[in-house]
Every structure is written in C-alpha cells, then in structure tokens.
Amino acid sequence: MGDIRRRGAVALGITALVAPLTVALGAGSAQAASCSTQTGPYQKQIEKFLGRPVDGRQSAADCKAIKAFQTTHKITPNIGYAGPVTWGVMDLMNKQKAVGDNPNKAGKCPTDKGRIACVDLTLQLSWIQDGRNLKYGPVPVRTGRNGHETRTGLTKVYWRDVDHVSSIYDVPMPYSQFFDGGQAFHSVGISVWSPPGSHGCVNMTKKDAVKYWNTLRKGDDVFVYGRKPGT
C-alpha cells in the first residue's frame, strides 16, 4: 500500500502471537529451526483442517503438514507448531468457505448504487455486485493490519494505475484502483492469508485483481465495513 505519487495522497489479521519454540543457535548465528515436537493448543482443530488423524498429539507427520501450511502462507515461526496464529488463518478460511455465493446475505453492502465493490473486513472477503446481482466473487482479500487499518465507509474509485509502484514502500502494486486516500485494490505476490495484513490496501491475487480491473471503472462505488480480526 502506498500513496499516489501524482496526487500526493495521504499514505496511509490476525495479530501475531508468539508460540513456544526452540531455535538452534550455532557459531553466533541463528540456524533453521527444527520441527516442533510440542503439542499446540489448537492441535485437534488443525489436524482436522489438514485431514490428519485427529488425536490431539503432535507427530512428525503432523509437524510436516503444519509447517508446509505455514510456509505457504508466510506464517512465522514456521516450525509446525499448532498455535493460535495458524489456527486463526485456518478458521478464517473455514468461515470464508461457509459464505458460499451469497456474501451479501445480511444486506450490509448497499444494493441501490448500481455497480459497487464490497469489502467485508470481518471475513476478509470482497466481491462486486450490481444492485442485488453478484457479478464477481466473493474472493479472499488481505486488508490493513493493526495500526494500518483499511478505512470503512462508502467511497469511489478515483484513480487507476495498472503498473503502480508504492512511493512509500517501493514495492509494486499491480492493477491498483485507489478508492480512499492511499488505499487501493491491487494484486500481491504473497498469500492473501498471510498475517498480519497490509498497510491499508485491499490485497488480492493477480487473477482477482485483473478481474476487478476489467470490471470496475473510475467513479464506481466501494463500500468497506466490519472489522478485521486482530485490529
């Protein structure tokens, strides 16, 4: 997330919790952490999510599966420990899946604005609707972390830059569509479930960002509501 260089716009989750771990140290530098042998507080839930035998006891195979999930979604430390951050990501995935193809069932995103991009911070989901008709999504997104929250309310897409680069963080923000100060929809090169979150932008996969780019236009409404876990 960054400000817009040509407009001088204002720059502008899950809260990371520290799980017990043992890091092997040698020659004054940290070495790769070994796979955790500890049973975590969310062992059974995580075993079930990963399709492992649910016995509530850490095994080498459990650790390998948990560590692979952590590595994919950049959850640290990725030592295979069944802790709260890892379970938080999995629990969010479960809740997102349960929404199905009716993300606006509660009617919180306006249906009288025509084409509008909706962002549910609580479930970390976004979609595009036209009136009551779902046009695309819902798709998982990664919004602002604690201290850099994505602002709520009704705004509009006011500037688009397909090859934008953040002037604050010097990172690419492809398919940027800015809707509130320096906050924008854009693609990101990491997992959209990676904690703790963005610096305020609504991150999404390249596939979804391209679809948003091709569907939305300058002046289209954006409505952000809810509260991201951990903020």
Structure description:
The protein has two domains: 25-97, no CATH class; 105-225, L,D-transpeptidase catalytic domain-like, CATH 2.40.440. The protein has helices at 43-49, 60-72, 84-99, 206-215, and strands at 25-26, 29-30, 115-120, 125-130, 133-140, 153-156, 159-165, 172-180, 183-187, 202-204, 221-225. The protein is globular. The two termini are 17 Å apart. Helices cover 20% and strands 25% of the residues. The strands form three sheets. It has a five-stranded mixed β-sheet, with helices on one face. Strands 7-8-9-10 form a four-stranded mixed β-sheet, with helices on one face. By secondary structure, it is an alpha+beta fold.
Question: Which features does this protein show?
Answer:
alpha+beta, L,D-transpeptidase catalytic domain-like, 5-stranded mixed sheet, 4-stranded mixed sheet, 25% strand
Q: What's the story with the biggest beta sheet?
A: 5 strands, mixed
Question: Looking at the structure, what is the overall shape?
Answer: globular
> In the CATH classification, which architecture of the largest domain applies?
Beta Barrel
Portion of residues within helices: 10-25%
**What class would the helix/strand composition place it in?**
alpha+beta
CATH H-level name of the largest domain... which superfamily? L,D-transpeptidase catalytic domain-like
Number of strands: 11
List low-pLDDT spans.
2-32
Indicate how many domains the architecture comprises: 2
Distance from N terminus to C terminus (CA atoms, Å) equals: 17 Å
Write the element-wise H/E pattern from the N-terminal end onward.
EEHHHEEEEEEEEHE
Which CATH first-tier class of the largest domain would you pick? Mainly Beta
Distinct helical segment count: 4
Query: What is the fold-level CATH name, i.e. the topology of the largest domain?
Result: L,D-transpeptidase catalytic domain-like
Which sequence of strands runs across the widest sheet? 5-4-3-11-6
Rg on CA atoms, Å: 19 Å
EC number: 2.-.-.-
Protein name: L,D-transpeptidase
Keywords: Cell shape, Cell wall biogenesis/degradation, Peptidoglycan synthesis, Signal, Transferase
Signal peptide: 1-32
